[in-house]
Design goal:
heterodimer, A: alpha/beta, Rossmann fold, FAD/NAD(P)-binding domain, 5 domains, five-stranded parallel sheet, 34 strands, globular, B: 381 residues, alpha/beta, 3 domains, four-stranded parallel sheet, three-stranded parallel sheet
Amino acid sequence: MSILKGKPDDDIKIGVYVCHCGHNIASTVDVEEVARRAKELGEVSVARDYVYMCSSKGQNLIRQDIMQLGINRVVVAACSPRLYEQTFQNVLRESGLNPYLLQVANIREQCAWLHEPGPLATEKANRLVKGAIKRVIHHSPIEEQSVPVFPATLVIGGGIAGIQAALEIANSQQIVYLVEREPSIGGHMAQFDKTFPTLDCSACILTPKMNEVARNPYIRLMTYSEVVEVSGYVGNFNVKVRRKARYIDEDKCVGCGICVEKCPWSTESEFDADLGVRKAVYTPFPQAIPNIPVIDKERCVYFLKGKCRACEKFCEAKAINFQQEDLFIELHVGAIIVATGYDVFDPTPISQYGYGRLPNVFTSLEFERLCSPSGPTGGQLKLADGREPKSLAVIHCVGSRDQNYNAYCSRVCCMHSLKYSHLFKEKTGGEVYQIYIDMRCTGKGYEEFYERVQGEHVRFIRGKLATITADSPDSETGEKLSLSCEDTLLGGLVNIPVDMAVLCVALEPRHDAEQVAQILRLGRSRDGFFMERHPKLDPVATMSEGIFIVGCCQGPKDIPDTVAQASAAAARALAMIVRGKMETGAITAAIDETLCSACKVCNALCPYGAIFFDEVSNVSRVNRILCKGCNVCGAACPSGAISTRNFSESQILAEIEGVLV
Amino acid sequence: MVALTPFKEAADMLMEAGAEKLDNCYQCGLCTGSCPWNQVRSFLVRRIIHQAQLGVIDFESEDLWLCTTCRNCVQRCPRGVEIIDIMKAMRRVITETGTAKIPDSLRLAITNIAGAGNPLGEPPEQRGDWAAPLRLKHKADSSTLYFSCCIPAYEPKVKRVARATAQVLKTSGTDFNILASRENCCGESVRKAGDENLFNSLAEKNIKAFSEAGIKQILVSSPHCYHSFKNEYSKLGADFEVLHIVQYLAPLVSEGKFKFKKEVKKKVAYHDSCYLARHNGIYDEPRRILESIPGIELVELPDVKENTLCCGGGGGRIWMDTKKDERFSDLRIQQALDVGADVLAVSCPYCMLNFEDSLLGFSNTKTVEIKDVVELICEGL
């Protein structure tokens, strides 16, 4: 990349451009006065005001002055630099000036929007502009940098989000490593029975995508594996993956399933939300990809007691290998897509709902498995005593929209509650009560689905459930549940006797989200989900360059939104790979090696791991690609050896002086 | 139908009187569903909150005086609305502006407290008389105060609690002072009933009396005194160590300070009082004491600890009339009978008074004794 010339040695010629921002600034601040006052300062060659400085006409004013008047420092007095600094930097770049010879004075968010119109507001704007003028004198050109991007992508998590992202990239004939913790890809979507609002069979729409993953030559699938370490930086990540021992040789196994059939030991099936059983050697579900079983060391009697080996005796492919050990594999990738999904809320702490104590109170995920043809009851709804339930209550917002647990709305529960009503009606013809606070059916076809389910004679009770108790046993119907809450529309307490209750539990960040965040240097928002770069304008990228977040690890969302976000992240990763390089921030720390006393204080403090110690020269050095310019090191350096580019002491002091004096 | 017009001034007045979290309510009705009143009659807490939001409150309604401040709704509220503060604010507005009538029985108790320092209107100089038969040698120089609460001090049915406590403290070798006529009602229920000014003056008098007597530590029998001394007086500048008697005694019992000589062969159910349990998170100490007394078989009631069922006595309700078939204390006695308890153990004078009253209605069948936890210690000695 060419280094654009700023001309620090030339006479400094400053252009000041004051924006009206329509009425946003001009109705509070006398912008013409601000421009006039700026011009009175000796260093300022030209000062203009314009109604929208960010428009192409406004930009042209600056461009012309640079070209024709030889302006070599630019001050824009407008909105926050977070919004348009890059736009104006481009104007400088296109006009042959180094983009860092610009300073933005924020006279909108930090002035016009805060104050009453009048001379005081104008005076504050004057001061801010003067500060920017005094500062920009001390600006010098900064060299911009870019890094090469290694053409491979890591996708962490093989649920629908990870599957979609991996397929999008692989279909562009770029290499993807898909790492999944469980023995099979598929995630939560594989556990669902039907999907709202169209009631497609979840497995039927997911399985083809899973098969595509298995077939696609550009996808390197690693199941039963976890990312344990990530180092490097955008374009050049080094990733360490632990491939947990399956005790089955993946190359030899033909997936015949004889080991599973012959294994004499059973345990609860995680895939069936602990309602069903699986063997000690197992594939979690029939459509598993890869169709290679795993021996669960915690449950296998050979591992526990040293005897059995039934699977080994029957395996004709000789694929069983009790000696197998965990393998560590190093990957080199340019981009990382995180799709680690969610956990469901455990409702046990809400003791008044009786979950865990009353046998016919289920969670939403358990209900999915009870409805599923591949589930523990073959899709038949059954009570603890084996009878078919004649009535169901679906409880909304369990652990969601509740400050005691999770303050946020989990977004999918209203819709899957409606789905459960429909499925229950379809399977049993029984009575269904929805106990809800607000119905939130905001997706395409969602409101229509709500209306359809209403038409199936489902009863809606508006209120938050207070208690579930077991009624005394009734001779005809056996033990019933008794639900109590206020029907806020009736304005009275209601008691609802039902056979079965489903608690629609919150979607929560994974229990190990913090650990993953640390490995990848991701931030987390207050709700515990991974933090996006911008909540509206960049919900896919993160503050870690080259790392993207998709699906429910970023926040609760339904399948359509997850798939859309996954495709977006894939496009972002592909954009980097196709260009083959990535621009990184120019505002980075610089260490004056003559002043560095080798105390290494900065090494440990850097939140981005960007500072390392050079043992040969006995000084600390900054990796400019990793550095984000936060200046923690600069503030801590006892020798004053570190300063951050464009935030030098002289720049900051000049600005303060400009504002105050 | 008459259309209602939102009345901002009334809502603002409530906000100023302490209903600050009012706006957070999203009308889910969990408060109504959690409120013990709805086990005996309709009481739409949620609707009152919404009326308060819009400022369209019926200040004449008797509903405004129902809340026992048991805190079950506040504990569960998904939006962190301080419902007790809202109820208190409405009562405060009535008390301070005279907008509506205060229930007669409550007004009488308040007048008595204002005049005599106790709700029964008994002479202050007789406040220490409960201790007379014990021939206590008052340790006027002790920095530990035993504050009995007005009810054990005057109410004949409950005086035994104060006496048992003094006895147990003596046995444990604890030096303690009694301020008798210099004590005033703690004012906890007065405040919940909406009389902020009276509360402040009671608190001021008590803090002054305690300070003048050189008190550093206060032992109380009532969770209500505990709550006000610990959580409310401290905000008025008081600096005393406050312990409920079960908190003080539990470690002594564990250390073997008491030599139990008799077996108390009884099945005992412990009733968590709202102010000890839900308001202050004290569940284990009373149970630990009961389990240490030889012979006692501890059984649990259906609603315990943070889900405890209110006796009906908090929030000033102890002084108000409750219709015969609307008493939560009756439900609680029935629960105790259902689990086959011989004794319903309490650690709150209000609970004891309410249960003793309720028992009168159960006299013809098998019955249950009401005893303070401290009385049961006495029985074992």
